[in-house]
Amino acid sequence: MFFVFGISSKEKKLDFTQTIICPNCDAYGRLEAFMTYTFFSLFFIPIFKWNKKYYVRSTCCGSLYAIDKDLGNDIERGSKSKIEESDLHPIDTGYRQRFCTNCNFPIEPEFQYCPRCGNKQ
Would the pLDDT of 2 be above 90? Predict the structure, then answer.
C-alpha cells in the first residue's frame, strides 16, 4: 500500500473588488483581494490549511498591500464590503512617478515627450 501526500502553497482570489482612488498613484482603479496559504494534501485532496495571509492589489499601478487577518476573514466570508485606507499596509508600491526634466510636470512612464511642454524625455 502506498500514500500520496504533499505540502504546497496556493493563492486564491477572493470575491471582492472595491473602486477607489489609489493612495499610491492617485489614479482611479480597483482593489482586488486574495489570500495565500499553505496546505497538506492526501491523495490530491487538501486536508487542512495553515499560514493564511490576506492581501489587496491595486489594478491601476499594481501596488500590493497586506490587510489584517480579521478583515481578510470577513472578506472571505463575504461579510465585509469596504476597505478603508487605514486598513492597508503597503508591501510593494510598484508605481514610480516620472516628472519632466524641463517643467517638472508628472508624466506617465511610457511617454517619450512631455504633454505640457513637449520636451523629449
Answer: no
Give the separation between CA 108 and CA 99, rounded to whole angstroms.
8
Is the Cβ–Cβ distance between 42 and 63 less than 8 Å? no
pLDDT per residue over 7-66, tens digit each? 999 999 999 999 998 888 888 889 999 999 999 998 888 898 999 999 999 888 888 999
Contact criterion met (CB below 8 Å) for 55 and 88: no
* Rounded-to-integer distance, Cα 80 and Cα 108, Å: 34
Q: What is the DSSP letter of 103?
A: T
Q: The C-alpha cell of 34 is what?
A: 486574495
CA distance 61 to 68: 22
